[in-house]
Amino acid sequence: MATTADIKNGLCIEMNGDLLSVVEFLHVKPGKGSAFVRTKLKSFKTGRTIEHTFPSGARIDTARIERRPYTFLYKDDTGYNFMHTETFEQIPIEESLINAPQYLKEGQAVEIVVHADTETPLSCELPPFVEMLITYSEPGAKGNTATNAMKDATVETGAVVRVPLFIEQGERIKVDTRTGEYAERVK
User: Fold this and answer.
1) Which CATH number fits domain 2-62: 2.30.30.30, 2.60.200.30, 3.40.50.300, 2.140.10.30?
2) What is the pLDDT of residues 72-103, one digit of tens each?
3) Distance (Å, rounded) from C-alpha 66 to C-alpha 114?
4) pTM for the complete prediction?
5) Contacts with 126 (C-beta within 8 Å, 6 or more apart), sequence order
6) Which residue of 33, 52, 166, 167 has the lowest C-beta tally within 10 Å?
């Protein structure tokens, strides 16, 4: 058991039969009345963000979660299959738990957040940036560079990314997995 004094960003708590992660919090001490802690909590089950206010000093149930290193192996009818990099244990995960499944390729290193008490996977997080090979891209027209012109390019996983006109087919680029945007060309 913990109290509201232990609340910090990233803390995982159990409330109303759901696992919630603290996104942000604010300790408020009004001039009149008792203090309280205003929080934004993200549900691991639904992915929705809710706001909740705790009275100062209230007891909260913390949940023990672990981040474990896994490698993506393949996708089949059971879902996406991953292997733990240290124990070589394999687990299938459904697509809804992965933050950017369109950028997963075989051998990709990921972190899987696991509820330590029940050993159930809560989410799968790709690294912030991944390198992708462009498999198809229209040639850029010369003279269109006065503005920040972008074009569609298909990467090796089949996802479509908006890239600048100078990027050609066969080049490697970095893609931001959080936003799905082009970051830079890989030398």
Assistant:
1) 2.30.30.30
2) 999 998 889 999 999 999 999 998 888 889 99
3) 5
4) 0.77
5) 98, 99, 100, 103, 104, 108, 110, 177
6) 33
